[in-house]
Design goal:
This protein has 277 residues and is an alpha/beta fold. It has one domain: Alpha-Beta Barrel (TIM Barrel). It has helices spanning 2-9, 39-47, 62-65, 101-107, 124-143, 170-182, 200-205, 221-233, 243-246, 251-264, 268-271; strands spanning 17-21, 53-56, 74-78, 80-82, 95-97, 112-119, 148-154, 187-190, 211-214, 238-241. The strands form two sheets. Strands 1-2-3-6-7-8-9-10 form an eight-stranded parallel beta barrel, surrounded by seven helices. Strands 4-5 form a two-stranded antiparallel ribbon. The protein starts with a helix and ends in a 6-residue tail after the last helix.
Length: 277
């Protein structure tokens, strides 16, 4: 049953999850490689802080799964690759799924698989590809009791934002999150809203499906810690942060700080003590 794998993903005491995303190299963007040039070393650094999960790809999952001992974080396997993050977008955009994604996840002893659901202005074809990916993987996830994390991402127009172009408009996020739930998500991974105080509405629209919040673009320590405190208070079931950890000067310290917010209910000021020194 999926609950068995979910039990490995969510902390038994807090019933929340902190997943460190380290799959950025999948997307063929030079700027995404900062902090993970030596991915094996980066994974080992993050693992020392004991997050609940680490998000990796089929080619790099070995860096986590080869580590000895049963205490290492669970593996969340990225199943789709896309070319939608560049400042200058190519002529044709795509989101392609790896072959036999659930079988590969099982062989890698993954606890969960993750797939995107993009909403990009003027690019309905990419949304169609995402939906086809989900329709393809969902029955396999059910057959093999593999939890499915869907990542509904609303983009700003590339001409306006360029690159990592998150749109925090609640009215755009809500229907896409709901669509992900309707398509069969076991976990939602969604962007924060511009107004964090309304994030409880994202949690509500998910109808009991746990919502993990993406970190988005690089932010200051104060901003990311305060935002995380507010998101947890709004009912989020955890976080999936990447660049705010792997590009931090102290990635293990930032991981510990965020773990305290997610699992121990500390304040942002208390969590910041893990970054000292």
């Amino acid at each position: 049953m999926k609950s068995y794998r979910l039990n490995r993903l969510f902390n038994a005491k807090s019933n929340r999850c902190f997943d460190v995303a380290m799959d950025h190299g999948f997307f063929n963007e030079y700027g995404f490689l900062s902090g993970i040039e030596d991915l094996g070393k980066a994974v080992q650094t993050v693992v020392t802080a004991a997050p609940d999960a680490v998000q990796l790809t089929v080619g790099q999952a070995r860096h986590l799964q080869a580590l000895p001992g049963k205490e290492k974080p669970a593996l969340v396997l990225r199943t789709d690759v896309a070319n939608v993050y560049g400042q200058d977008l190519p002529r044709s955009l795509f989101s392609r799924m790896i072959d036999a994604p659930v079988e590969q996840a099982l062989r890698l002893d993954a606890t969960c698989v993750v797939v995107n659901l993009f909403r990009i202005p003027g690019q309905p074809e990419v949304t169609d590809q995402c939906i086809q990916n989900i329709l393809r993987i969902k029955p396999e996830c059910d057959r093999y009791a593999m939890p499915l994390m869907i990542e509904p991402l609303v983009f700003q127009p590339n001409a306006k934002a360029g690159g990592y172009m998150v749109d925090g408009d609640l009215q755009k996020i809500l229907p896409l999150v709901r669509q992900a739930v309707e398509l069969g998500a076991d976990i939602i991974k969604a962007d924060p809203t511009d107004d964090v105080s309304v994030y409880h509405r994202v949690v509500q629209i998910a109808g009991g499906i746990p919502v993990l919040v993406r970190g988005g673009g690089k932010a200051s320590d104060t901003e990311i810690l305060q935002r995380t405190e507010q998101l947890i208070a709004q009912g989020a079931s955890g976080i999936v942060y990447g660049r705010n950890i792997i590009q931090h000067a102290n990635p293990a310290g930032m991981t510990r700080a965020l773990m305290s917010l997610v699992h121990e209910g500390t304040t942002a000021a208390q969590a910041a003590q893990y970054l000292a020194g």
